[in-house]
Design a protein that fits this description.
The complex is a heterodimer of chains A (126) and B (122).
Chain A lengths: L19 H32 L1 H10 L3 H28 L6 H25 L2
Chain B lengths: L11 H28 L5 H9 L1 H29 L2 H4 L3 H28 L2
Helix pairs in contact in B: 1-3, 3-5
The chains are: A mainly alpha (126), B mainly alpha (122).
Chain lengths: 126, 122
Amino acid sequence: MSNERPVNINLLPTRFKWPLPALASITHRLTGAGLFGGIALLLYLANLALHSPEGFEQAGALAHQPLPRLILLGLVAILVYHFYAGIKHLFLDFHIGETLEGAQRGVYIVFILTVVTTAVLGVALW
Amino acid sequence: MVTSVTSFSRSGLSDFVVQRVSAVILGVYMLCVIGFLLANPDLTYEGLVAYFGSFSMQMFTTLTIFATAAHAWIGMWTIGTDYIQPHYFGKGATTWRFLYQSICVFTLFIYVGWALRIFWSL
């Protein structure tokens, strides 16, 4: 049994140039972990906005203050990235874009779509 | 066969499927809510409550809450088991990983209860 355990490789002494898909993959993880914490903020806002007409006004005003607005926009950005990177993952599951060129193209598409969508949502939602 | 005691479903293959099915649910829900917000720039409190308070939307939200819990657990578990290892955390790695996983589960439990209360009290 013990020899069938998965082996965890120590990456610390490893010096390698990060391939683009690896960078996209770790960003997918980081944004996922960020969203884990971001849920608390979203639930706080949903609770406030849905609780009462006064709370609705407060939530609207809060979303327009500089710092909360920046944090919310950051949350939107990592949500959008995680969404597109997830779709890329589903494509890979179906063996689409698995070649080196395909994987790199996929990352570029995810990066560009994330920037464009975040910019559009940042303008449209505020 | 390797058995794991802390993964979502005790099976990596099953976790793989749950992670993807829950992802699709979350993606569709997100598109619906963002679409609703974009389509209603002059949204009122009554309009927001009418949207989230309809029974069909409450059911969809509940599905999304449970999909979030499963998706987040599998994702956070994967991160924890990859990085909270003896290479990086020394001999106490298993203890730290257990602590990390406990915090994740507890946080998700709070999220689920809180979210259900918010959307079912409408």
